[in-house]
Write a sequence for this structure.
């Protein structure tokens, strides 16, 4: 998956999140799932950029499980 694909996915998730938050009766479970998916996408993008910066193959980057990305500190 290329960086552009990840960014497109992030944009789609953010758009859905905005639609859910602006509507009445927000779906709490879906919002939580979106937040996790966004964290995973951002993490993957950061991994790819770091690997590129330090000369490692971007293909070594992988999606971390929700349990991992949700424990990161802001």
């Amino acid at each position: 998956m290329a960086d552009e694909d990840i960014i497109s996915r992030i944009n789609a998730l953010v758009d859905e999140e905005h639609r859910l938050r602006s509507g009445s009766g927000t779906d709490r479970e879906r919002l939580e799932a979106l937040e996790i998916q966004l964290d995973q996408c951002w993490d993957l993008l950061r991994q790819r950029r770091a690997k590129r910066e330090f000369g490692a193959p971007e293909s070594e980057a992988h999606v971390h499980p929700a349990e991992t990305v949700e424990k990161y500190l802001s």
